[in-house]
Amino acid sequence: MDSVKILAAALAPVCGVDETAISDWIEVPKNTEMGDYAFPCFRLSKTMRKAPNMIAAELKEKLELPEGFVKCEAVGGYLNFFTDKGAVASTVLSRVLKEGDAYGTSTEGNGKTVCIEYSSINIAKPFGFHHLPSTAIGNALYRIYKALGYNTVGINHLGDWGTQFGKMITAYKLWGDKPVDDYSIRELVALYVRFHDEAEKDPALNDTARAWFHKIESGDPEALELWTKMKDATIREVKVTYARMGVDFDSWAGEAFYTDKMQPIIDELREKGISKLDHGAEIVDLSEWNMPPCMIVKSDGSTIYATRDLAAACYRKETYDFSKLLYVVAYQQDLHFKQFFKVLELMGRDWVKDCVHVNFGMVSMEGGSFHTREGKVLYLDDVLDAAVEKTYEIICEKSPDLEDKKSAAEAVGVGAILWSVLYNSRIKDVTFSWDKVLNFDGETAPYVQYTHARSCSVLRKAGTLPKEFDASLLDDPESTALLKAIAAFPEAVKSAAEKYEPYVVARSIMQISNAFNRFYYEQRIMADDEAVRAARLALCDATRQTLKNGLNLLGLIAPERM
Fold first, then answer.
1. Which residue, 83, 100, 118, sits at the end of a domain?
2. What's the rounded Cα separation, in Å, for the pair 28 and 508?
3. Cross-strand bridge partners of residue 324
4. pLDDT tens string 176-185
5. Into how many domains does the chain fold?
6. 274-277: long-range contacts, CB 8 A cutoff, minimum separation 24
7. Which of 107, 137, 384, 480 is 20 to 30 Å from 400 at the Cα level?
8. Count of alpha carbons within 13 angstroms of residue 183, beta-carbon side
9. Is the whole model's pTM more than 0.85, yes or no?
10. Of 222, 248, 274, which residue constitutes the final position of a domain?
11. What's the pLDDT tens digit per position in 315-373?
């Protein structure tokens, strides 16, 4: 199963290089005649001061071939390794079929807690398309860490504090025409947009808004009631959207939760001489580290999100004693996190080394960006609805006899949207295109989901699966490539967690899908020979299981029929 690790452990002593580095260097030749794994010796030329072909010949003489490998060849500057295909096939299939839904999981995180802050929508504002990357990446990381045995805490750090709520209440008091409980998010946004339109004509409205927010801060009953109802209405509505994407949270503690936890932080910064006054504001000077100052308290005495982030991080450490705290937030906030982490370090919080800003690029629709103030909003719900509708049309055309087309369209349409940000390195900017994400033949979610459905169809037609099989019969190139792809899945899950990159899992199941479809077309699964048929059905079942597990880790449904 862990052929790369086994090979790296054997090579490390004779190369004088760390096993982890060796593992990263080992390649899988495209041409299986060149071996199952290859080690490029040119990487050692500088330290060994020899030509790669000489290094390869020398290493071959020194190396003791590890268990599971039958041959090693020195070809040019490479060492090519050949595995015992029968033994590998037997090990891979036995493990997948025995572990089932647990294949790809581990216990490495037992006893450790990972907190992940993601999505973090704003109250009484749209759950927009721009929230998709944080939501999808955060949810995938949540599932991946949980699969690795960690106690995982998903946190939706709600934007539920600030002067915008004074604006919302002012707008509601002036133009509201029904109980606030009955307002949808879109209706609340319309009030917010109207406020900004009217405030341009009458700037005094901004003073009224500040006064209402001060009432919230002061505990005024009416202000608190309106604020709470707006918050509750938003959460009720967004939970429906989250459910469609398989997303849930363990904590909905937003900025407001930390309002009574900031003063101890402010006092500590003062007592330790870390903060100072600057033009009436309280800041932490970070010029020594080539950063602008981190503002803690504004000149009017109010706090900002940096203050709340400091309080939140300390609270989370005290409450969860995390081994890692991840912030899945766009790269535009890189500076904020550098400042915020540096302030924690200056405060003596040595656990700041366990805080990670998992940044990501922007995902935009063909056509441009959107801003709430002007009312130019692309709601995530609208995108999901459109994807499901378009998918339904495709399914009606391709599979008119499918019984539950609507459920399949929901699974595939929503999955396509999530996949659009999970298949590439998270730092890349992505321009969303309908033609690309809903393609059933490209490197898309529908393609992987269809491959899963195809494997299920084969197994249904086969009926009862044989309990025993001879894996050594899976020695053709297509079966070998598929087995390799399946065997690599657990390591992909682990790597995704280490790199904070869900795309590693997405790429892994894409490789499995490609390999399975080549196997499907080149090898007759329902072969006349019963022994061959049994082995190929076992491989088909292992494919189905691994694709299902991988899709689940990304928050996607694995349809059995499409």
1. 83
2. 14
3. 114
4. 999 998 999 9
5. 3
6. 274/343, 274/346, 274/347
7. 384
8. 30
9. yes
10. 248
11. 999 999 999 999 999 999 999 999 999 999 999 999 999 999 999 998 777 655 444 44
